Give the backbone structure.
Amino acid sequence: MSHFEEKTLHREEIYKGKVVELAVDQVLLPDGKRSTRELVFHPGAVAVLAVTKEGKFIFVEQFRKALERDLLEIPAGKLEPGEEPLTSAMRELEEETGYMADSWIFLSRFYTSPGFSNEVVHLFLAKGLKAGRHHLDDDEFVEVYELTEQEIFEEMARGRIADAKTILAVYHWALFQKKEGE
Amino acid sequence: MSHFEEKTLHREEIYKGKVVELAVDQVLLPDGKRSTRELVFHPGAVAVLAVTKEGKFIFVEQFRKALERDLLEIPAGKLEPGEEPLTSAMRELEEETGYMADSWIFLSRFYTSPGFSNEVVHLFLAKGLKAGRHHLDDDEFVEVYELTEQEIFEEMARGRIADAKTILAVYHWALFQKKEGE
């Protein structure tokens, strides 16, 4: 139990879309006052740090409408209803890049924007990759790259790699997985 | 220029709140087909990894309504209109924790959820801390902690620390700042 808990007095459901839902809650604060909270509900997502036998990492470049620009990210996608995160990670890696992996390791689970959203990302490491054919969703357009660790850090410095899940995944690998893999 | 660019054919503005705005765009895909994009616009945020002279890190625990639970995070807050990120970071650290810092270093800038939101976090390192009094916003209730590096990794394993900006900040420090600080 939290001693900071904010009880919902009233919820207004503003929007229910394909990806997100928006609600505005009237809440009772711990001091008895009231405030509002704008909440974006999301089904959750998976992300995959996929490493080739040569020690290169699979990246996808795609246009991000919210930013009006391309980003270079690790493969990722949202959870389908009732889908296990690992199943979803395997599906997304193959759909977006064509790669399948022999070995899957759960790395981390984190909230991306807890101030307004419940989106959670389940992060996996995929090793022993085999190339195949990708088969994207109708509205997905991505380009697949294989990057060395040095290239990844260069693209971070350049700002082409610039999203939290990707940076967190690369840092996680550099801190904890790198030595094991060598 | 992106060769994946999605042109906006029509934008429906669904909601404009205190923190977020929601819009749904009808877009023209690179292959000439159409799709919709649900977009959550956010003013951007700052986050501060603040280190005491004893090498402890300042954390705040607060209730996150979108998750219906408490999280232990580094101090953070959203940018006010026209505010410089560094000014905002100084303000948020003092408001939430009472601490002021002698030295500020820009660490990183990243998008938290590029799949649906333009939220960007500007991350700073604050050193040479002096304790003061905190003065929270009317609807903010936080508890301030000082944690050692070991305690941080324990709280990550326990799931009390579980948000991307905090984990990314701690990893960044462990990879790049730790040796300099010793």
In short: The mean pLDDT of chain A is 94. Chain A touches chain B through 69 residues (CB under 8 Å). The longest strand of chain A covers residues 100-111.
